[in-house]
Amino acid sequence: DYLARRASGSGPNNPQQPGSLNDNAGIQTLMSEDFGSGSDVNDIPSWDEEGSDSDSSTLAKSPGIGDDSASPDGGRFAFIGRDEWICRTVNASGASALSLSFYWRGDSSAEGSDDFIVEYNQGSSCTSGSGWNELDTYNLNHTSWSPLTTRGLPTSLNNDSSFAIRFRVDSNSGGEDGRVDAVTVSGTAVNVALENTDGDYFFIAPTSADMPAIFSTIGALVCPA
């Protein structure tokens, strides 16, 4: 009846329309890691590691001197040994325009053929042997901490709930190591709680508590009387 009256021109002309998903979108941090503070930890919390998570070839390392000096972020950093990697999955549901930022440094013992590699994997786990895509590769013979490095992530990762970010060292000898700190993934994401309570009747994954407002709005549109 409502649609018939609208078609004949006798229905309400301007029923209230839902708002936009972009009403409450903004730059948000989707993942942030500074590896904590204090003494060395072999098993880096929240990260997968090449081989055994409990050995010292990858660890959250307390800063020291020389190649192990503190990063600009301070506190511990991730230490990655020869042919090792650290990896973490990221939930970017509802987010786009993703970027990855970090500090990194290499080792004074490294040579021109040794690399520090940043890569991502969509649709596979951290331990997958395939599906890795190179985001950037740096020569490992970099003997000071980098400025904050920021790289845009491909649009194929937008709204992906579980893609993997991996930092890997490809070196010829032991003692040619990589380090990374202050790893952050950001994106333009919707604040779900704010969107669901801003009164524009646009809901994301509405709960039973949202239903009275939803049905009240639908009722007013479909049957104004």
Describe the structure.
This protein is mainly beta and 225 residues long. The chain is 11% helix and 34% strand. The chain contains three helices and eleven strands; from the N terminus they run αβββββββββββαα.
Describe the secondary structure blueprint for this structure:
Blueprint: H1 2-8, E1 25-33, E2 48-49, E3 58-61, E4 77-80, E5 85-90, E6 95-105, E7 115-121, E8 132-139, E9 149-152, E10 163-170, E11 178-190, H2 192-196, H3 211-222
Antiparallel strand pairs: 1-11, 2-5, 3-4, 4-11, 5-10, 6-9, 6-11, 7-8, 7-10
Rg estimate, integer Å: 24 Å
Which spans of ≥5 residues are poorly predicted at pLDDT below 50? Answer: none
Tally of helical segments: 3
The backbone outline, from C-alpha atoms, is elongated
Main pleated sheet: 6 strands, antiparallel
Query: What fraction strand?
Result: 25-35%
Secondary-structure-based class equals mainly beta
Helix-residue proportion = 10-25%
Number of DSSP strand runs: 11
Mean pLDDT score: 88
Note the gap between the termini: 12 Å
Give the helices and strands as they follow along the chain: HEEEEEEEEEEEHH
Give me a quick take on this structure:
With 225 residues, the chain is mainly beta. The protein contains 3 helices and 11 strands; from the N terminus they run H-E-E-E-E-E-E-E-E-E-E-E-H-H. It has helices at residues 2-8, 192-196, 211-222; strands spanning 25-33, 48-49, 58-61, 77-80, 85-90, 95-105, 115-121, 132-139, 149-152, 163-170, 178-190.
Notable features of this structure?
225 residues; 5-stranded antiparallel β-sheet; elongated
